[in-house]
Amino acid sequence: MPQRAPTKTAADLVPSKRSLPALREAAAGCTACDLFARGTQTVFGEGPPSARAILVGEQPGDAEDRAGRPFVGPAGRLLDTSLEQAGIDRRQVYVTNVVKHFKWEPRGTRRIHAKPNMPEIRACRPWLEAEIAAVKPQIVICLGATAAQAILGKDFRVTRDRGRILEAEIAPFVMATVHPSSILRAPDPASRHAETERFIEDLRGVAHLVAEPRGARLAAGMR
Ligand code: URA
Ligand code: SF4
User: Fold this and answer.
1) Which of 24, 148, 157, 216 could disulfide-link 44, Cβ–Cβ 3.0 to 4.6 Å?
2) Is the beta carbon of 64 within 6 A of some atom in ligand 1?
3) pTM metric for this prediction
4) Counted domains in the chain
């Protein structure tokens, strides 16, 4: 009988010291799935270790792959302005992705986003779990179906249950909404505007869970 190779995941690479800097350093050398060879670098999450919210996207895009930081391209700019309008300071939240390497296909001279598959999502999951365990957020906010299904299970439907505050095992609360990239793909300015407003509304609904008590913010010497 041919033996099936054990599923390779990042689990063996997660260091025993689970601080964010230790995790980031270990993830920089991750080769647990084939995507490490396609992207420029591991794009690890970033934000204050005491953040009360973790925002989870799908995977870094072209701009993130070059910068080595999550959500710094067009989707990131839409995220920033939407957070601001929802009353959430991006510098107060931890931002990361389900998959930490950019997956792309060539089209002419451009690198076009390709969706991560299940084995890649599974391989990368230990990093996300370790980030959540290190930050211990009050709420995990899933941006788009990939994040929502990674956190809430494959039957979760963003279209049906977006914006709802759910109780979960991974954090006291989880909320899933659309991915900002899906808003950027809206067919016309009117629907883009409407989708942006709905996105802001979903974020506004959890702003009270994200805001830190003033005392804690002062003690942490927030920027
Ligand atoms: N899309 C994502 O899901 N994550 C990023 O970091 C950028 C774009
Ligand atoms: Fe490792 Fe994730 Fe990159 Fe795959 S995508 S090599 S699991 S960090």
Assistant:
1) 24
2) yes
3) 0.92
4) 1
